[in-house]
Amino acid sequence: MIRTTSLLLDDATWDIKLDDKGNIATVSNPYAIAQNVACAVSTFLGESIADRRIGIDYQNFQDGKKVQYLSFLYMKEAKRVNHVMNAKSLLYFDKNGLKDRKLSGVITIQDTDNQTTTLTL
Question: Where on the tree of life does the source sit, at the highest rank (predicted)?
């Protein structure tokens, strides 16, 4: 059984949260792995100081085209996360006029304990 611990991030602000005692809150798997995947697919290519090669090249997808390839890149980034055995993504651009364009979808991951978790974007 894998043991993964990560800092608990607030879903709305993506900032660290505190526990009831005022300490930095942590979370374990499978939520920790799902949170790590969410961080991985939210990283712009070249943004990570530790490794400039990781992340998604969002600049090539601003026109709302190539969503299938973007979905492939999400799957690839998700699989790069420790303890992720398999990942599938289904993405689409929710368009309400050009100014409200938004990427939506789901990423389903399977960890090395065979637990399946679905992230909603």
Answer: Bacteria
CA 67 to chain centre: 16
Q: What pLDDT is recorded for position 96?
A: 67
Domain residue limits, the chain:
5-120
| Fold adopted by 5-120 | Nuclear Transport Factor 2; Chain: A, (3.10.450)
Gap between the Cα atoms of 59 and 3, Å rounded: 36
How far is it, in rounded angstroms, from Cα 34 to Cα 78? 9
Question: How far are the Cα atoms of 7, 44, 51, 71, 76 from residue 89, in angstroms, in the given order?
Answer: 24, 18, 24, 6, 10
Residue whose token pair is 């389903």: 108
The whole-number pLDDT of residue 100 equals: 66
Which pLDDT score, from 0 to 100, does residue 36 have?
95
Q: Give the pLDDT confidence of 19-43 residue by residue, as tens digits.
A: 999 999 999 999 999 999 999 999 9
